[in-house]
Amino acid sequence: MADFPSGSSDIAVAAVTADAGYLSLHTADPGTTGAHEVNGGSYARQAITWNAASGGEQTSSDGQTFAGMPAVSGDLWIGLWGASSGGTFYWGSPDSAVTGPVVEGNSVVFTSGSVTAGPIT
Length: 121
Hints:
Largest sheet: 4 strands, antiparallel
Strand content: 15-25%
Number of domains: 1
Number of helices: 1
Strand order of the largest sheet: 2-1-5-6
Helix content: 10-25%
Shape: elongated
Order of helices and strands: HEEEEEEEE
Structural class: alpha+beta
Radius of gyration: 14 Å
């Protein structure tokens, strides 16, 4: 794939994050469909906002807390959605974002700036 100029990459990632206002957790790579989303416990997608794009990436401008998690035996991946339930799946990371396991009832916390969308290259 050809590389995009920095300005084009910033526009592309900003277009996705403009609609992708919810962060999700997944028990395996979410692929292109948002597969393997966590369910159970008090798990719910969390709202997320974004800093300005730079270098084809955007970082979160707020923190997210997934409280009351169900037990998860392995690692967790992240995804971005357009709605708090259902909706359009926009992006998922093929790399684990959280090293498991997660103990039932515990929280998974992301601080401001710790979630990155992109890069678009």
